[in-house]
Amino acid sequence: MHSTSAQASVHDDVFTVSGEGLDFDALVSVAREGARIRLDDDALVRVAETREAIDALAADVVPHYGVSTGFGALASKFIPADQRAQLQASLIRSHAAGSGDAVETEVVRAMMLLRLRTLLTARTGVRPEVVRLYADLLNAGITPVVHEYGSLGCSGDLAPLSHVALALMGEGQVVDREGIRRPTAEALAAAGLEPVTLREKEGLALVNGTDGMLGQLIMAITDLRALLDTADLAAAMSVEALLGTDRVFAADLQRLRPHAGQQVSAAQIAGALAGSPLVASHAGPDDPRVQDAYSLRCAPQVHGAARDTVDHATRVAEVEAMSAIDNPVVTPDGRVESNGNFHGAPVAYVLDFLAIAVADVASVSERRTDRMLDPARSHGLPPFLAANPGVDSGLMIAQYTAAGIVSELKRLAAPASVDSIPSSAMQEDHVSMGWAAARKLRRAIDGLTRVVSIEILTAARALEFRAPLESSPTITTARAAIREVVAEVGPDRFLAPEIESVVGLTRNGVFAQLAQQ
Fold it and tell me: What Pfam families does this protein map onto (predicted)?
């Protein structure tokens, strides 16, 4: 799992981009690791052929939307040929109206790669030189500054994509490969690149897409797959620490309710507990407990439901990533037709759905953490796992931190996509708010990362108090990784850095990889 705000670095792989679907791993590599791209030659030929149809329409005395007319509520106004370059420039400048903090480099790079893929479908009508410059910006590590606010998720991510398009014109601000913000014209010159003058149709083609919300969805899917594996390992560690049973995770019991995600999580939790002396120590008929609490026993059901939600979101993202999102579009027979494919509803819905799943997985994780800290429910563990309870507070406030995050995640689970504020003089009278759904999901994923990491930190400490009983081989390996960055139980010490150290292990995929073994 990767940091959500890291500056893209140089990556050795080179990925070919065509107008077909886009591999999610390639997108993550380009967005987060600075991987380079090359353009498919056949796709560029088709782009040039489609541009010929736009040039023909531009010479027509009959108005054609996006070619020789204004935009949005001004679509009925015919624009003379000598004003169309100004029309395109004015469109981009006026629509680059974002506000707030700059969004993460990886978000902008993902958005750019997805827009580039749509341009290569040859359904947008841009010239090949526009496509090439878009690719050159990515390969040069030049990232336009895009702001937090501005997209309503309909007519595409207009403001975010307009800030990117502004860079193609040599205007606005960018961040270079070293992470330094500078004027676009200066960065282009340093990279040996020339800006373009946009012609008919090209302004709309650069901004009418769901690429911002889709890029964030694809990266969220990648992160959540790793986080759900991590949550499975965390649950297994908590089961061990709380002297729980592994019998409830048996495959035959899970097959009685054969949801796919549930089967995966149950198998991973059972696998992480396999060979555990701790579990075996109380597995006989003398164990007085009939069944464990829901947060332990039902972990596969909760984690599995989240997995199934991620799978559903993946199917939506796969369709969106092979679509030609623009308005108007150039059809294969040369027509230029208006459409509504830019509406972000399909993507917005699953972004919101994932935020619900994230909140619930974090909630059940926090409940397991709290149980390990409560001597009334922890089956012999000291209060708050303190070395000297009373003098020491142990992990008391770590649970507060997890609880505060979970409360925030519940607020972030409120859907953005149910809202709509009309725009463009009521021409755009229903919008998706998909960008907002994407932004809050990113924050939610960061919160889940921290909550699950606190559970792992807590369980590792709890297991120290179970000595001399030993953990399973998988959990022993996890505990060893934690002990490399966090000291063993002792008097209270500055806790925040220890939490961040375990968060770092989670983000680097250490625990996810162990869960998959």
Answer: Lyase_aromatic (PF00221)
